[in-house]
Amino acid sequence: MRPYQQWLLSIFIGLLVSKLFFALVLLAGDIYRLIAGLFNGINKNKKDGSYIPARRRFVSEAAVLLAAVPFTSFLYAMVKGKYDYRVHRHTLYFEDLPEAFDGFTITQLSDIHSGSFDTADAVQRGIDLANAQKSDLFVFTGDLVNNVASEIEPYMHRFSQLKAPYGQYSILGNHDYGDYVQWESEEAKAANLEKLKKHHKALGFRLMLDENTPIEKDGQKIVLIGVQNWGRGFIQIGNLDEALAGVKHDDFKLLLSHDPTHWEEKVRYHPSHIHLTLSGHTHGAQFGVETDKFRWSPVKYRYLDWAGLAQENNRFLYVNRGFGFLAFSGRLGIWPEITVIELKRKVA
Fold first, then answer.
1. Each residue of 274-288: b (16+ CB within 10 Å) or e?
2. Tell me, what DSSP letter sits at residue 54?
């Protein structure tokens, strides 16, 4: 879908939801009128030639007022919300973190979906905010484009500004393989993927394809691992065992894996202890409610871990809510995210 098509879809959804709210209020009023009419009929309380009372004006006014809430909200989501970048900071403690990495920071972006952008200046604000975190390491966890490699080209000079002292690393997401568009041949599809890989390099990202690399500091190291996409219900070509080749059991491990279901099904019980996995993919459905005490999004019915931090078996998963947007050209309640993770050594 092109940006204007996403706008049309989003307007349709906004109007549909608004009409639904409007209709529900009228339905509630009409149910009351029907019950009142039955009561009047039973008791022979005929008024103005009809047992059923007329619809009261305040019910219609209440319907309009209630419908205005989702209409205004969806309008904000499409105009402002999708570029309302938020920084989420988390400090994670590990007993076996090498001392040199105590206080080491990582900025994560995910799900850029460059084919959906319609305001370059707004995108630049998000890039500037990510750079302003001045983290030690930058990672990107997949879905640079929606379908084709050319979508990122108008933004190459912008995202190439993302820099960190210990480098910039990336992986592929399910949308990066070109599976959701019809190609004239398998060769054309393969060429598109190769082109996208070259774009990662031109951006200054080291694209990790089922491999690992040490991040060294003051004579100590942590191991960064990157896998291709593996997701329940999506493309499954990532090979964690291959990516772990040469990694020692007691190395401190940081994994980049686009889909959080990979962590659920493969990582959290893997024989090799992977301390922290960074994912994305879900976007938090780009719609929901998040407060200190309550979180809800329709995506929760599809994913066990759909946004933020999870922990099990002494292993952490962080699911980024996404930098961009897809299909619905907006965000409401689940705002675009820049993640900053600080690693700390736990004192016994």
1. bbbbbbbbbbbbbbb
2. P
Q: Are strands 295-296 and 86-94 parallel, antiparallel or unpaired?
A: unpaired
Structure-block tokens of residue 111: 């799900």
State pLDDT tens for residues 235-251. Answer: 999 999 999 999 999 99
Nearest-angstrom CA–CA distance, 79 and 324:
14
Q: Dihedral of the CA atoms 10, 14, 20, 26 (nearest 10)?
A: -160
CA–CA dist 222, 100 (Å, integer): 10
Q: At what angle are helices 3-42 and 57-79 packed, to 10 degrees?
A: 160
Give burial (CB, 10 Å; 0-12/13-18/19+) of 217.
middle
DSSP code of residue 260: H
In sequence order, what are the residues at sequence separation of 6 or more whose Cβ sits closer than 8 angstroms to the Cβ of residue 292? none
At 292 the three-state DSSP class reads coil
Phi, psi of 144 (to 5 degrees): -70, -30
Distance CA 46, CA 152 (A): 69
* pLDDT average, residue stretch 252-256: 98
| Alpha-carbon span 14 to 114, nearest angstrom | 23
In the numeric block, the tokens 């090498």 are attached to: 98
End-to-end CA distance of the chain: 53
Q: How far apart, in whole angstroms, are the C-alpha atoms of residue 126 and residue 261?
A: 27
User: Which residue type occupies 267?
Assistant: V
Query: What CA–CA distances, in Å, run from 348 to 38, 94, 96, 345?
Result: 73, 10, 10, 9
The per-residue pLDDT for 45 is 65
Output the pTM of the full model: 0.90
State the burial class of residue 152 (Cβ atoms within 10 Å of its Cβ: 0-12, 13-18, 19+).
Answer: buried
Burial class (CB in 10 A: 0-12, 13-18, 19+), 301: exposed
User: Under DSSP, is residue 218 helix (H, G, I), strand (E, B) or coil?
Assistant: coil
